[in-house]
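Q: What does the assembly look like in three dimensions?
Context provided by user:
Components: two
Sequences:
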Amino acid sequence: MLASQTECGGKTRKLWRSADIRGHTVVILEPMTETPTTATGPRPVTPASVEDAASTGGQQQVPSRRWRRPNGLEVLTVGLVLLAIFRGPLANLFDTPMIQTGATIFVSIIVQALPFLALGVVLSAVITAFIPPSFWQKALPSRPALAVPVAGAAGAVLPGCECASVPVAGGLISRGVAPAAAFTFLLAAPAINPIVVVSTLVAFPGRPEMALARFVASLAASIAMGWIWLRFGKSQWLSMPDRSHLQGNSPWHTFRLAATHDFLHAGGFLVIGAFAAALLNVAVPTEWMNAVASNHWLSILAMALLAVALCVCSEADAFVAASLTQFSFTSKLVFLVVGPMVDLKLIALQAGTFGRSFAFRFAPTTFVVATTAAVVVGSVLL
Amino acid sequence: MSRHVQALVLFMLGGALLRISIGETYLRYVKSALRPWVILTGALLVILAVYAMVELIREERAAKAGVALADGHEHDVVHGGHDDGHGHSNRHLWTAWLLLIPVAAILLVSPPALGAWAAGRSQPVVQQPTSDDDFPALPATNPVPLALNEYAVRAVWDDHQSLAGHNIELVGFVTPIPASKQAGLPPNSHFWITRMMLTCCAADAVTTKIVAVDAPDLPANTWVKIVGQWEPGGGTNVDTAIPWIKTQNLTRIPQPTDPYE
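A: Here is the predicted structure of the complete assembly.
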């Protein structure tokens, strides 16, 4: 099939790279006798036609190679046949209770997160396809320093957990919203929306100050992160996937392309995060927890790290925090503030959406800021 | 990742979600309240996949027609048009291959609900009720079926001991009590009757354990129905207490449709 033939070697990729950078100048780089421009005739040069040119060019180089990489469909078919044959041994592998428990937690996180991820992807696709960039210019203050707190407060209305907010923030940036404001929204939305506030109230009976402290600390940390990005952030850390090819013939077509692409892309990263979380969930000995809980600072650090490792959805994390009875209330607050902002699946999702060099700077900074905010607010309110 | 594979991955993932959520299997992983959303997501993915497949078939037909018209012009744009989704822009979609892992896990392995191993590791918590109101009186049936968590909350937090004088029916699975945790328990306590409580999914499960006094020694993960009476002990007014029940009658039962509370 043509698909993988075009992905054959570095040479072809270089060709694509130049197609990326120089747009339609790819025609000049083409080693072809018949240039796509002559083939397309008077067709206007759009990103799609650049791709046509690139892939046609790749295709040409194939006959010179004896071995060709198997294409996706072939890999998939062979994989499925192998799985069907080795189903028995595979199931046996999952016979030990520890691996079973890990597998259950892995599947649970995926099944639970996919609807929220889909919601976020659909919202993001709506932003891409139906809401013109001018809307955001009107809705948000033009000075990014002011747009940050507005975006933070707007986080209170997205009723979802953190999986939904990553694609939405990606969609906002691609529509021209200042990255600082989009990141503040990304961090605030999963932590301060009404569902999360109510579930926190229910999880800590007789301690409404817990929900208040969570709201205040989360909002403060999100806004602080927005301002930190404004002051220190560099746009070259952001490498968002090129979305130009997601421009369809009609809004509905654009919506479909964007939704499919974002879902597949983010979904893969969700799998990485869920796998890491399941592994840690079954591998960390419970005795460790009791040992660290007795020390004030150690317990705060432990709960912050636990929030990163467990990847509990922000609508449920209050109940998990409440169940960790050996820990102090301040350290529980740290768990509730850090969890929706930094966890393994979020780091993976952010690396996928905004690029690795972004995620590896953003996540540790957020971790420190969120932990600090929670400790400060906790010492005042709790 | 070519558009063919993209469509297939979406289709399989959507299919796997539909497969578990139309049946009862999804209850091992998530709360029943999430069911409509899982079904909706599965349907959305399948629809997107079918759309993409139809589009591909149309393009291929157009490409064939185009090749015939162009008479030997192999690299005609129509051919390229068929290929456009494979271009540079989708190379970063390699991570989408990973989505086949949960598909395989769901369809081939189908992991069981959390059981004794997870329960044995977790510290059970009996949460203090939100309101200070008295507990409502138990219904006048004999026995009174109670959720494990409800039994535990009443046993630990009810100053008026509303459990006393009733025959209570509990349903849960067996988590053997290790020798290290036997101290302070009545003799003849072999296992905790156990149930997990979910908020969203199995990653946030909270365990309820109750010591089954005078019950026979049973293998881990056996599902049982116990009828018995509240036995004071295990602690009150502290959320780490593990209450007791004196077993009168024990029946083995199949795993309930919803393994969680």
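Follow-up: Chain A touches chain B through 98 residues (CB under 8 Å).
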